[in-house]
Amino acid sequence: MTASECSASGYNFAYLDEQTKRMIRRGLLKAVAIPGYQVPFGGREMPMPYGWGTGGMQLTASVLGQDDVLKVIDQGADDTTNAVSIRAFFERVAGVTTTTATGEADVIQTRHRVPEQPLRQGQLLIFQVPIPEPLRFIEPSEEETRLMHALEEYGVMHVKLYEDIARHGHIATTYAYPVKVDGRYVTDPSPIPKFDNPKLHMNEALMLFGAGREKRLYAIPPYTRVESLDFEDHPFEVQQWDAPCAICGARDTFLDEVITDDRGGRMFVCSDTDYCQSRTEEVA
Amino acid sequence: MRWNAFDTPVHDSQRVYRQLLSAMAEPGTFAEVGGAPLPPSGAAIGTACWATLLTLCDLDTRVWLAPELDAAGINEALAFHTGARQAERPDEADFALVTPATLAGQGEAEPPAFQEGSDTYPDRSTTLVVMLDRLDTAGPWALSGPGIPGQRRLGVGQGGEALMTRLAANRARFPRGLDAILTCGTRLAAVPRSTRITRSASEEVDTCMSP
């Protein structure tokens, strides 16, 4: 291996060995063929702890090519610890170009957000997933949940949403809001805010999901029906804010609450830093 | 008979894999496999088919080969380059190399029964790698479903009836089923089990004829 192929010598391109990549690649093809179904895979140890995005990283490492441009976001931001570390990791072990611009990226690894800017055909969005099984909090047994998926036995999921309504008067689930993919598998969209759920429906990009600790991967192909579970009299709704983004003035984005002092001062700003910044530059 | 592997296995297989992934994610779209080794003369498979095997097979996979494609020492070449094992029976195969004629069944013989997975583990199923004499949009087959905005057309050439009928049957057994990677010369496409297949009159032409 020459230095130009891999900037950190001693590692294969993109860290994982070829055998592991092939195993994950075969799994991803099955995941795409059965949208929303969780494919077990032999998760490897990555040089960081579970819960930091090892699943997403293994998927990224398996699909990434030397000509790809990579973007990594954490809760929408390009400049938080998790995003910076993972981006630096792939710069070192794969020597790929990285970017913060959503439109320029070929592969986007994300923790808990879908970018505000619509994705285009050919882009790959790779989600980091903590708990891939949407039924897990209702049924702790893997054998049982697997059977429930096989039998399309999803009544309990609606019971859970109903309990929300009985207790709070509305569906109080705000993130990791369960979806049904192509009318068949109930799937956890990872802990994205439910604000992002509508973006999954008929998205032009291929969306891949990797859970490192649970060793599961799944996919939502482009142009695929994705419905958020709801009731006729309690239809699915997304979050809304009273004020626009304090920086760029956007009214149609997901806002983070930022505490500004210890006297209760706070502001609401876009969680997607790239989108916010590009809007600010447009105005200026 | 000399079967060549990729020049730079890491990057070449990654490139072919991304083409396969896009093909599977967007059924009915085509990719031209470039920079992949040409199988030797006398081989019954084309460049895209060989590149697919080099990309996906290793010592964890079992490959079943249709008798009509067993030529020019492909079994030995596959074992040498990838370490893949031969599947004794079609239902043991992770990958099956077939032609439409294989799926039609020859003479009295029943067509081979591949692994469709189970309702709990539908991913444990055979992926067909199909050798075609034509692969284009000029066919009577209309594809719809995940990965397809509206509808896409597909033509698969001679004997396509048996292939597409078999793939159309996937729908009734979903999530069990067979996924197919279609190859013709350097061109590849895919039809996963999630695709709905219907027959209609043919229109468009964008032909790839294998030599």
TrEMBL record, chain A:
Q: Name one GO molecular function term.
A: 4 iron, 4 sulfur cluster binding
Q: Which Pfam families match?
A: PhnJ
The biological processes this protein is annotated with in GO are: organic phosphonate catabolic process
| Record protein name field | Alpha-D-ribose 1-methylphosphonate 5-phosphate C-P lyase
Keywords, A to Z? Answer: 4Fe-4S, Iron, Iron-sulfur, Lyase, Metal-binding, S-adenosyl-L-methionine
Per its UniProt entry, what is the enzyme's top EC class, as one word? lyase
Recorded hits in InterPro entries, A to Z, give: PhnJ
- Catalytic activity of the protein: alpha-D-ribose 1-methylphosphonate 5-phosphate + AH2 + S-adenosyl-L-methionine = alpha-D-ribose 1,2-cyclic phosphate 5-phosphate + methane + 5'-deoxyadenosine + L-methionine + A + H(+)
Q: Superkingdom of this entry's organism?
A: Bacteria
* Family designation: Belongs to the PhnJ family.
Automatic annotation (TrEMBL), chain B:
SUPFAM superfamilies reported in the protein's UniProt record = PhnH-like
- What InterPro entries does the database record attribute to this sequence? PhnH-like_sp (IPR038058), Phosphonate_metab_PhnH (IPR008772)
Q: So which domain of life are we looking at?
A: Bacteria
Provide an example Pfam family for this protein: PhnH
Gene Ontology BP terms: organic phosphonate metabolic process
**What is the recorded name of this protein?**
Alpha-D-ribose 1-methylphosphonate 5-triphosphate synthase subunit PhnH
Recorded source organism is Halomonas ventosae
